[in-house]
Amino acid sequence: MGKQKINWKQKLTSRKLWVAIIGIVAGLAAVFGVDENEYTAIAGAVIAAANAVAYIMGEAKIDAADRFNPAPEPEEDTAAEEKSKKEE
């Protein structure tokens, strides 16, 4: 079987990954006896980082798609053209 490439963009924007990371952080905090205020601050920092990474990766994906699939040119004002045809 061939070695498959890991899609790191997809992995880092996965909510499942970030929930797993939060679970690991929570478990480690409990093991090391972190008090509730520190635990809340750590969990908040992890969630904020996850949101930032997901936003950045999402915007990068949108920008890449726009680069390779540009939006179609806007159509000309057909109402003005129809008016000029009627006048002729």
Description:
Helix 2 (15-31) runs antiparallel to helix 3. 74% of the residues lie in helices and 0% in strands. With 88 residues, it is mainly alpha-helical.
* Spatial shape: elongated
Order of helices and strands: HHHH
**Helix percentage:** over 70%
Q: Give the radius of gyration.
A: 25 Å
Low-confidence stretches: none
Discrete helix count: 4
Number of strands: 0
Major sheet description: none
Average pLDDT, to the nearest integer?
Answer: 77
Distance between the termini: 71 Å
User: What percent strand?
Assistant: under 5%
What structural class do helix, strand and pairing data support? mainly alpha
Note the topology.
Elements: H1 8-12, H2 15-31, H3 36-68, H4 78-87
Helix pairs in contact: 2-3
Task: Pick out its properties.
88 residues; mainly alpha; 4 helices
Concise summary:
The chain is an all-alpha fold and 88 residues long. 74% of the residues lie in helices and 0% in strands.
